[in-house]
Amino acid sequence: MQKSLLQYINTPIELRLLKKKELPQLARELREFIINIVATKEGHLGASLGVVELTIALHYVFNTPTDQLVWDVGHQAYGHKILTGRRKNFHTNRQLGGLSGFPKRKESNYDTFGVGHSSTSISAALGMAIASQLKGEDKQHIAVIGDASIASGMAFEGLNHAGVTDANLLVILNDNAIGIDPSVGALKQYLTNVKKGTQKQDNIFEALNFDYSGPIDGHDLDKIISELERLKTVKGPKFLHVITTKGKGLKQAEANQVKYHAPGKFDAKTGDLITKSAFRQPPKYQDVFGYTIVELAKQNKNIVGITPAMPTGSSLKYMMTEIPNRAFDVGIAEQHAVTMAAGMATQGLIPFCNIYSTFLQRAYDQIIHDVALQNLPVIFCLDRAGLVGEDGATHHGVFDLSYLRCIPNLIIFAPRNEVELRNIMYTAQLRLEQPIAIRYPRGRGVTIDWKQPFSKIEIGKAVTLKKGKKLAVLSIGTMAQNATEAIKGLNVSHYDMRFVKPLDENLLHAIFKTYDIIVIVEDHTIKGGFGSAILEFASENGYKNPIKTLGIPDDFVEHGGVDELHEFVGLDVGSLIEILKGLL
Ligand SMILES: Cc1ncc(C[n+]2csc(CCOP(=O)(O)OP(=O)(O)O)c2C)c(N)n1
């Protein structure tokens, strides 16, 4: 039996002691190691399997961590983590208190830059390269970026700048023709032509002053290593185009690249997915959005759907299949998605622009300048609002209420269940005179029979869920569920406020006049969130009632299960009961 190599590699120093001919065996072991752990612990699979050889080659050739390696997005960095001192802890990946699923500066010297959102690697590595120049250091700086991420505006901005510097920067394009869903756009078509050899002449990267090489087979260790060794001696901005297969080495993951991006639990030997309970469950909120937009768009020809690179995650794929000419995957381009929606709205279309709460942060100026300032009735659907769980700090959607609440003209709504989500979508497409943001969480709702006939929601109107004495709980969005559970045995009132903007001021006056204590429950940062809106209301109107704001503290919440994280920040049912009892 061959002796295992991986077990001796605690840092890339040991890796560099191996002979080149031993590396293919190491690649097999690394792949197997990733598969075995992700099969039971879950996480991102396909992207990391695709860069096993590239990862080994990079750490073999370059003197990391002195040479600086930046992974774009970072969901492909499992091999990197395992080879850089985290093999023994890798089974804790993405779990509470365990390793992060993405590179993180706090976690290791080898993680040069924190990532999670895409298309930042070129700018970050260029910044490091310029810093090295200024300090007179002789280092290499490498950004590894995927073909979906390089099509984003930020990546172009980085390339455009790098091309007029003499910074020592190597950009490696990991081209597997797929993001989470298949890559889209003209650049993707261009890259396909380059691979076929039909478009070598006017190379876009050479035009940007990069020393271009490739495309080369990203699974051929000899080829990558010799090319990296050559590039190490070339000064200035360089570009290496590497072709890989997402999911490489696991048959099902290669064949079904969308599903195996993050497949959940699977059988490590066969690759078969382990399916969960067959019982009828409430739907995922994303599916309520996905099915409802199709239903509405069939009745209203002005409706269009937009997603920046998340057709599967947002479930806009249902509309892309059924009404393809009115549903658009624009690639990783949140800013473009928002301004394109604004343009469509000027022409009388009704755009549903679906963006994860965390990724909408990218398009902030576009929301203000292109949508709200012109009061264009774009319908923003913010999926994955609140704490999202294992993806962690980079992905929690806990800032949207703060960053949206200060924008004039914008309505902000959070449904407490699936039926409310359907009804607000229905209401919004009846033609609002202004933009609206609808925020809803990751995962499943609470209503099995969610597909009820549509009914119109009055803008700015809250609902009373329970009448009691002394204390009023004001919840926003799906936090209503935890609040409902928590007050079961208590004689208190509960209001689902629904609208963060405009507030139901009539009801609020009545509440402040009736109850001694007001308790706010929101899955959002306390600072600037829904509770802040209530504090402002109380202050403006001279109410002195004590107001307790329960939400996410002023800190970045790390990764872990959603329930574990709710417990951590005190938004789980148990914590709410404790706090409410204390107040009573
Ligand atoms: C700004 C932003 N928008 C959307 C996402 C969601 N997302 C994560 S990975 C990914 C696809 C990345 O594809 P690619 O760059 O080709 O890398 P690969 O998965 O092939 O390694 C997307 C859209 C993100 N991380 N950041």
Quick synopsis:
The chain is an alpha/beta fold and about 575 residues long. It is built from 24 helices and 17 strands. Helix 12 (about 285-300) packs parallel to helix 19 and helix 15 runs parallel beside helix 17 (about 365-370).
Structure description:
There is one protein chain. The protein is of the alpha/beta class and 584 residues long. The protein is 38% helix and 15% strand. It is built from 24 helices and 17 strands. Helix 7 links the parallel strand 2 (141-146) and strand 3 (169-175). The radius of gyration is 25 Å and the shape is globular. The protein starts with 11 loop residues before the first helix and ends with a helix. The model has no long low-confidence stretch (mean pLDDT 96). The structure holds thiamine diphosphate. The site of thiamine diphosphate (TPP) has 22 residues, from loops.
Strand coverage percent: 15-25%
- Helix tally equals 24
The structure class reads alpha/beta
**Estimated helix fraction:** 25-40%
Small-molecule binders: thiamine diphosphate
Cα end-to-end separation: 69 Å
Major beta sheet summary = 7 strands, mixed
Which strand order do you get reading across the main beta sheet?
Answer: 7-6-8-9-11-10-15
Work out the radius of gyration: 25 Å
How many E strands?
17
Using the alpha-carbon principal axes, give the shape.
Answer: globular
List low-confidence stretches.
Answer: none
Residue-averaged pLDDT, rounded? 96
